[in-house]
């Protein structure tokens, strides 16, 4: 990976982590943590963020190549079933939050600046 690409990815991850931490500080709620009960040790946060960034990039590229697409079709196109349980929706949510894709319908996504197909 080129040094510029690595730096850009690190900056995206830092902004995303800061935004989430800011949101968590505003809405602390009691309850179970985000860990999975069968995990023996907590996952590496850096590796999780890099994986999320890669998933967002896959979603962004697929939407740009295919045009407006239904979330179910996008899930199949990017192979989200191999990402692990509960990873696709958060990746889509982050992609929308970061403006890398936009919602053009209830379950349709498109590249920024496009509209849904009729």
What features would you describe in this structure?
It contains four helices and three strands, in the order ααβααββ. It is mainly α and 118 residues long. Helix 2 packs across helix 4 (88-97). The longest helix is centred in the first third of the chain and has 24 residues, at 3-26. It is globular.
Task: Compose a concise summary of this entry.
The chain has 118 residues and is mainly alpha-helical. It is 54% helix and 6% strand.
Write the layout of secondary structure elements.
Blueprint: H1 3-26, H2 45-66, E1 69-70, H3 71-78, H4 88-97, E2 102-103, E3 108-110
Antiparallel strand pairs: 1-3, 2-3
Helix pairs in contact: 2-4
In the CATH scheme, the class of the domain at 47-118 would be Mainly Alpha
What is the level-2 CATH architecture name of the domain at 47-118?
Answer: Orthogonal Bundle
- Roughly what fraction of the amino acids lie in strands? 5-15%
Kindly report the CATH topology of the domain at 47-118.
Answer: Arc Repressor Mutant, subunit A
Task: Report low-confidence residues grouped into runs of 5 or more.
Answer: none
Number of helices: 4
The main β sheet shows up as:
3 strands, antiparallel
Secondary-structure-based class equals mainly alpha
* Radius of gyration using CA atoms only: 16 Å
Query: How many β-strand stretches?
Result: 3
Shape call? globular
Strand order of the largest sheet: 1-3-2
State the end-to-end distance. 39 Å
Mean pLDDT: 84
Query: H/E series, N to C?
Result: HHEHHEE
């Amino acid at each position: 990976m080129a040094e510029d690409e690595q730096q850009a990815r690190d900056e995206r991850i830092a902004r995303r982590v800061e935004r989430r931490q800011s949101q968590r500080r505003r809405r602390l709620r009691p309850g179970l943590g985000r860990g999975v009960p069968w995990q023996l040790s907590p996952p590496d946060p850096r590796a999780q963020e890099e994986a999320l960034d890669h998933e967002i990039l896959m979603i962004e590229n697929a939407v740009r190549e295919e045009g407006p697409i239904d979330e179910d079709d996008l899930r199949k196109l990017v192979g989200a079933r191999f990402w692990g349980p509960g990873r696709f929706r958060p990746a889509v949510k982050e992609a929308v939050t970061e403006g890398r894709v936009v919602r053009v319908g209830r379950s349709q996504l498109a590249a920024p600046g496009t509209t849904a197909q009729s």
